[in-house]
């Protein structure tokens, strides 16, 4: 069959399409609604995805679609479904969903998926995360570049004789909750008082389903779904957005606080004192629990996580595997090593039992279970996993990131006992066990610095020493 000329949707262009590099990036589609992304463009993305999937398999198929609470999401989902069904594929629309619920649907139904969200970005943004069956990510190297090229050029109309697909609405939140609760048993845990800050994001929808009925006294914060984010940005990686939760945990006398980002695929933890628990410590405790179920397995950690993480993995009989930053690398290496779990410093946590996809909710269940099985406080429990002092990510604007990295390498690399590697940016290890990593941003003229040392004083001294060179 031959393609007919480009469709009306492909030619009636409301936002620029000639160069979509600022919208369709390495891992997802994300931009400002009305300026970079609109219904007409999204219709073409759906059509391009359907053509890609049809080219890979002559049979018709299904794409599962979910969306977050942003005001623009329903219209974009409807347009995307039009593009997919026009090219002969069916759509299962699960409606409101967290990103990890969409991954669950893709895995459980064994079909490709599309999640409409801009994660932690402000209200004016929206976007799409795409995956193949089994929640396998679609990135630039695995189909997203092909989709981008097709949309830039104008997606051809469906082949002559194509039978349009159908759209079915299906609610899967109860199935999602049951699946997660089947992976982590909290039934015997002691009662816990838990403050949860949903940030007006999708955790306000999923937390009652997943945590309801367990021995947990949930104190909800900002559970109302509101894509304008009236209370604070749904980005717990920014310390300013944790302040409300920290105060509430102390005021409520709670055992633990949980903060989710807008699409609820990342979870941040606060202890009973209102102090943040590092994602590295969460990675370490979840790794220990997963290794108890799967002894001897590999566990993935990116190179920015604390050195405590590979130490603890080894101590619990696992094999630590170090990777670059980024979910595509984590998932690829997980598949290669059959790793049971993977964690990143950014609070993304990946599980073999969850189609190697990331789930902040599943990580939260593990931390709640560990605390519920202990007799003490969360700060006491996590002390064994918080072994070193870390700077967090410190960004510096530079004219030439690569020249600065070369200067740092020359300055430190010649010293006795110093090790360097360039797996992702430049990592420098010093004889006293302290280390730092410098990585250039992929999208901005920034260098990202992470430093770790035995104590805060040593960390601060090394951080300032490196920054003096970077910012000179």
From TrEMBL:
Q: Which keywords appear in this protein's UniProt record, sorted alphabetically?
A: Isomerase, Magnesium, Metal-binding, Phosphoprotein
Family statement drawn from the similarity comment of this UniProt entry: Belongs to the phosphohexose mutase family.
Q: What is the protein's species of origin? A: Pseudonocardia charpentierae
Cofactor(s) it depends on: Mg(2+)
Q: Which domain of life is it from?
A: Bacteria
Gene3D superfamilies assigned to the protein according to its UniProt record, in alphabetical order: Alpha-D-Glucose-1,6-Bisphosphate, subunit A, domain 3, Alpha-D-phosphohexomutase, C-terminal domain
> Which ranges carry the Alpha-D-phosphohexomutase C-terminal domain?
393-468
- SUPFAM superfamilies xref list: Phosphoglucomutase, C-terminal domain, Phosphoglucomutase, first 3 domains
Q: What is this protein called?
A: Phosphomannomutase/phosphoglucomutase
NCBIfam families reported in the protein's UniProt record: PRK09542.1
Report the Pfam families cross-referenced here.
PGM_PMM_I (PF02878), PGM_PMM_II (PF02879), PGM_PMM_III (PF02880), PGM_PMM_IV (PF00408)
- Please verify whether the record's keywords include Nuclease: no
Q: Residue ranges of the Alpha-D-phosphohexomutase alpha/beta/alpha domain?
A: 24-152, 175-274, 284-388
Is Nucleotide-binding one of the keywords? Answer: no
């Amino acid at each position: 069959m031959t393609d007919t000329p480009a469709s009306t949707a492909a030619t009636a262009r409301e936002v620029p399409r000639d160069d979509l590099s600022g919208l369709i990036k390495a891992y997802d589609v994300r931009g400002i609604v009305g300026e970079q992304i609109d219904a007409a463009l999204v219709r073409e993305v759906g059509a391009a995805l359907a053509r890609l999937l049809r080219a890979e398999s002559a049979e018709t198929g299904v794409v599962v679609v979910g969306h977050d609470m942003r005001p623009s999401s329903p219209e974009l989902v409807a347009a995307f479904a039009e593009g997919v069904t026009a090219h002969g594929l069916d759509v299962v629309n699960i409606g409101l969903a967290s990103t990890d619920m969409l991954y669950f649907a893709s895995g459980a139904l064994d079909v490709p998926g599309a999640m409409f969200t801009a994660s932690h970005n402000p209200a004016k943004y929206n976007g799409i995360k795409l995956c193949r069956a089994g929640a396998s990510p679609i990135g630039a190297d695995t189909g997203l570049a092909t989709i981008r090229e097709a949309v830039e050029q104008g997606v051809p109309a469906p082949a002559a004789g194509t039978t349009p697909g159908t759209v079915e609405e299906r609610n899967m939140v109860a199935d999602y909750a049951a699946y997660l609760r089947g992976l982590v048993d909290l039934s015997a845990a002691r009662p816990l008082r838990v403050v949860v800050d949903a940030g007006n994001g999708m955790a306000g929808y999923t937390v009652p389903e997943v945590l309801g009925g367990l021995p947990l006294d949930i104190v909800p914060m900002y559970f109302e779904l509101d894509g304008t984010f009236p209370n604070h940005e749904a980005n717990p990686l920014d310390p300013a957005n944790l302040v409300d939760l920290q105060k509430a945990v102390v005021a409520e006398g709670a055992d633990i606080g949980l903060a989710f980002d807008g699409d609820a695929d990342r979870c941040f933890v606060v202890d009973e004192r209102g102090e943040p628990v590092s994602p590295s410590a969460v990675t370490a405790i979840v790794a220990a629990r997963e290794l108890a179920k799967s002894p001897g397995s590999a566990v993935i950690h990116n190179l920015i996580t604390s050195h405590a993480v590979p130490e603890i993995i080894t101590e619990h009989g696992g094999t630590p595997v170090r990777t670059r930053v980024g979910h595509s690398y984590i998932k690829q290496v997980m598949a290669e090593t059959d790793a049971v779990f993977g964690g990143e410093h950014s609070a993304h946590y990946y599980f073999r039992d969850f189609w190697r996809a990331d789930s902040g909710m599943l990580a939260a269940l593990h931390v709640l279970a560990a605390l519920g099985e202990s007799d003490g406080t969360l700060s006491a429990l996590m002390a064994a996993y918080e072994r070193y002092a870390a700077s967090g990510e410190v960004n510096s604007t530079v004219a030439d990131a690569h020249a600065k990295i070369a200067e740092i390498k020359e300055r430190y690399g010649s010293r006795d006992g110093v090790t360097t590697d360039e797996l992702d940016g430049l990592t420098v290890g010093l004889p006293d066990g302290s280390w730092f990593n410098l990585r250039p941003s992929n999208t901005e003229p920034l260098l990202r610095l992470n430093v770790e040392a035995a104590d805060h004083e040593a960390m601060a001294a090394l951080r300032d020493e490196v920054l003096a060179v970077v910012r000179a």
